[in-house]
Amino acid sequence: MTRGEATQSKIHYKGKQDDFLVFVDDVDTYKKWLNDKSTPLAHFISAFQVFVTHRQGAQGTYDSASKMALSAEFDTDNTDDVIQKILEKGTLQISEMPERQGPTNDSMNSMRAK
Questions:
Q1: What CA–CA distance (Å, rounded) separates 77 from 68?
Q2: Would you kindly state where each structural domain of the chain is located, as residue ranges?
Q3: Distance of CA 60 to the CA centre of its chain
Q4: Which tens digits make up the pLDDT trace of 50-61?
Q5: E-strand stretches of the chain
């Protein structure tokens, strides 16, 4: 992989009051899980955390969702149950971040052979 290049996969759920996100590490396993719930969530999610974007869609500032926000939207504050609902009813969004450009270390310029 090139320096700085990365792919970010997240599930976006548009709620009544706010937008919620869950990050997914392995998209293929997630897609299999949608049809076969016997696959443990830990196989494709590394952080069991729900993020809220303050009505900014899938963009904006990501903050941890409070138990009050989860309870108001999903009728439970159990993070595992909320994550499962978001994964089932949310939409997958994959964004690719391009590689960084520019010099690798300007301070090493005097050490280069001329």
A1: 7
A2: 6-97
A3: 13
A4: 999 877 766 777
A5: 6-14, 19-24, 51-52, 63-64, 91-97
- At 16, which amino acid appears? K
Question: Hey, how many other C-beta atoms are within 10 angstroms of the C-beta on 14?
Answer: 14
Cβ burial, residue 113 (10 Å; 0-12/13-18/19+): exposed
Per-residue model confidence as pLDDT tens digits over 71-94: 999 999 899 999 999 999 999 998
The number of residues making up the chain comes to: 114
**Does domain 6-97 correspond to CATH entry 3.90.70.10?**
no
Number of H helices, E strands in the chain: 3, 5
CA 94 to chain centre: 9
Q: Is 9 helix (H, G, I), strand (E, B) or coil?
A: strand
